[in-house]
Inverse folding.
C-alpha cells in the first residue's frame, strides 16, 4: 500500500498546508507581539488565541517537514505522534500559566489597602458623619468541610472610640453558623478614652465556591463582617490597618504563618467592601423600605490555591490507561472479509460492548469529581471524560462501519486512518476544553 501511486488530492493538501503555514506564521507573530505587550500579572489574557495560532503553525510545520501526505507508514505515524506532542505541550503550558495566574481579582467587592482608601470608598458610598470602628482579624485555623463549608477560627478585635457604647461592641459573621464572636479575650483602655476589645471566634462559613477550574482552581474564603449594631447607620467597620505592617496582598497578612489548609496553599489576603442590598431595612427605620438601602459590608478575603498536582496526576493516570485501552482496541478491528477476523476475536457487537464497559469506568471517575465539587457546574476534569466519550463513540462507529461495509479509507493500511487520528483527536478536544475553561474571568 505504501508503494502505491499518490492520489491527486495529496498534492492539493500539501499546497493548502503551505498556505495555512504562511497565515499561521503571520497570525502567531502578531498575537505574540500583543501578548508580550499585555499585562504580565494576567498571563492568561490573550493566551487562548496565541496558543491556537502556535498549535496550527507547528502542525503545519510538521506536515511540511515530515510530509505525511506521501502516505508511507513511517511518515504518517511520525506526523501523528508529533502533532499529539504539540497539543500535549499546549495543554501543559496552559497549566503552568494557570499556576502563576494573578488571583487577587477573586476578592469580593472593592479592595482597599489603606485607611485612606477605605475612607474614600465609604465617603463616596454612604457619605460622612459615622463612627468608623477599626476592626482587625487574625485567622489561625481554616479548613474545608465539604464543597461549600469552611471551618475557621482565630481572633477579631475592634478599636472603639469613647463615644461608642459598650452594647455596640462586637462583630457578627453573617455567613457563619456561629455568627457572633462571643469569647472576649482582652480589653485595653487607652488614655484618650478609646478602648481595644479582642475576641476569639470559631465559625463555619457557608459560601458558594467556583469549581469550574478544578483541580487548578483558586478560591476566595471571605469573612463578611457586620458591627454588633449593624442596623445603626452611624456605626461602620473599617480595616484596622494600624495593627498590621503596610498592607500587601502577597504578604498574606492577617493569617497565622503556621496555618495549614489541607490540600491548599494561601496565596493572598485583602480587605474589601461589598455593597449588598438585602431588599429589606429589617425594620430599623420608621419609613418604608427604599430601593438601594444596602450598605457596604466589610470583607476579609483569604485567597487559596489548590495543590493540584496530586488530584490532577491521579486523574491523568486513570484517563491515560482508559484512553490507551481504547486505542489498543483499534488494532483488533478487521473488515468483514478479513481472514484474521475470527483469530482476532473481532465482532461488531464485541466492539460496542467494549465501548460500553469503558464508558462505565469513565462515568465512575466523573462521579468522583462531582463528589469533590458538589456538582456545582462542570469542572475542568469532567471535560476529560467528555473527550473520552467522544472518542469511544467515534471508535464504535469505526468498528460498525468496518464490519459492515467496504470503504477504501477505512481499509487503508489495516484501519490505519483511525489509529493515526485517535491521539490528535482526543488531545485536540482536551486542548480546546483547556483554553475554554481557563480563559480570563475578569
Amino acid at each position: 500500500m505504501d508503494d502505491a501511486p499518490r492520489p491527486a488530492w495529496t498534492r492539493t493538501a500539501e499546497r493548502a498546508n503551505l498556505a495555512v503555514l504562511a497565515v499561521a506564521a503571520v497570525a502567531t507573530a502578531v498575537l505574540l507581539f500583543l501578548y508580550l505587550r499585555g499585562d504580565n500579572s494576567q498571563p492568561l489574557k490573550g493566551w487562548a488565541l496565541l496558543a491556537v495560532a502556535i498549535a496550527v503553525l507547528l502542525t503545519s510545520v510538521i506536515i511540511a517537514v515530515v510530509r505525511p501526505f506521501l502516505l508511507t507508514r513511517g511518515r504518517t505515524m511520525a506526523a501523528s505522534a508529533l502533532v499529539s506532542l504539540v497539543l500535549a505541550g499546549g495543554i501543559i503550558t496552559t497549566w503552568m500559566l494557570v499556576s502563576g495566574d494573578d488571583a487577587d481579582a477573586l476578592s469580593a467587592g472593592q479592595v482597599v489597602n489603606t485607611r485612606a482608601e477605605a475612607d474614600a470608598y465609604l465617603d463616596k458610598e454612604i457619605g460622612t458623619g459615622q463612627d468608623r470602628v477599626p476592626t482587625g482579624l487574625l485567622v489561625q485555623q481554616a479548613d474545608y468541610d465539604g464543597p461549600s463549608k469552611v471551618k475557621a477560627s482565630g481572633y477579631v478585635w475592634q478599636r472603639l472610640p469613647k463615644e461608642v457604647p459598650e452594647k455596640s461592641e462586637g462583630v457578627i459573621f453573617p455567613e457563619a453558623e456561629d455568627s457572633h464572636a462571643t469569647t472576649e479575650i482582652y480589653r485595653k483602655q487607652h488614655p484618650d478614652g478609646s478602648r481595644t476589645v479582642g475576641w476569639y471566634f470559631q465559625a463555619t462559613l457557608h459560601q458558594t465556591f467556583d469549581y469550574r477550574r478544578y483541580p487548578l482552581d483558586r478560591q476566595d474564603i471571605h469573612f463578611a463582617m457586620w458591627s454588633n449594631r449593624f442596623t445603626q447607620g452611624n456605626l461602620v467597620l473599617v480595616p484596622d490597618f494600624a495593627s498590621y505592617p503596610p498592607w500587601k496582598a502577597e504578604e498574606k497578612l492577617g493569617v497565622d504563618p503556621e496555618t495549614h489548609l489541607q490540600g491548599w496553599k494561601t496565596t493572598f489576603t485583602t480587605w474589601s467592601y461589598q455593597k449588598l442590598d438585602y431588599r429589606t431595612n429589617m425594620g430599623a427605620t420608621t419609613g418604608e423600605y427604599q430601593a438601594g438601602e444596602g450598605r457596604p459590608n466589610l470583607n476579609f478575603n483569604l485567597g487559596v490555591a489548590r495543590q493540584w498536582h496530586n488530584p490532577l496526576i491521579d486523574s491523568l493516570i486513570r484517563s491515560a490507561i482508559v484512553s490507551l485501552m481504547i486505542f489498543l482496541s483499534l488494532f483488533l478491528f478487521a473488515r468483514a472479509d478479513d481472514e484474521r477476523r475470527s483469530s482476532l476475536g473481532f465482532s461488531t457487537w464485541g466492539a460496542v460492548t467494549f465501548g460500553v464497559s469503558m464508558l462505565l469506568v469513565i462515568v465512575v471517575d466523573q462521579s468522583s469529581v462531582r463528589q469533590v465539587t458538589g456538582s456545582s457546574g462542570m469542572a475542568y476534569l469532567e471535560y476529560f471524560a467528555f473527550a473520552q466519550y467522544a472518542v469511544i463513540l467515534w471508535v464504535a462507529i469505526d468498528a460498525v462501519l468496518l464490519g459492515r461495509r467496504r470503504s477504501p479509507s477505512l481499509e487503508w493500511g489495516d484501519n490505519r486512518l483511525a489509529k493515526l487520528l485517535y491521539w490528535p483527536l482526543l488531545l485536540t478536544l482536551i486542548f480546546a476544553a483547556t483554553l475554554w475553561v481557563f480563559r480570563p474571568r475578569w
User: Anything to note?
Assistant: The chain has a mean pLDDT of 85.
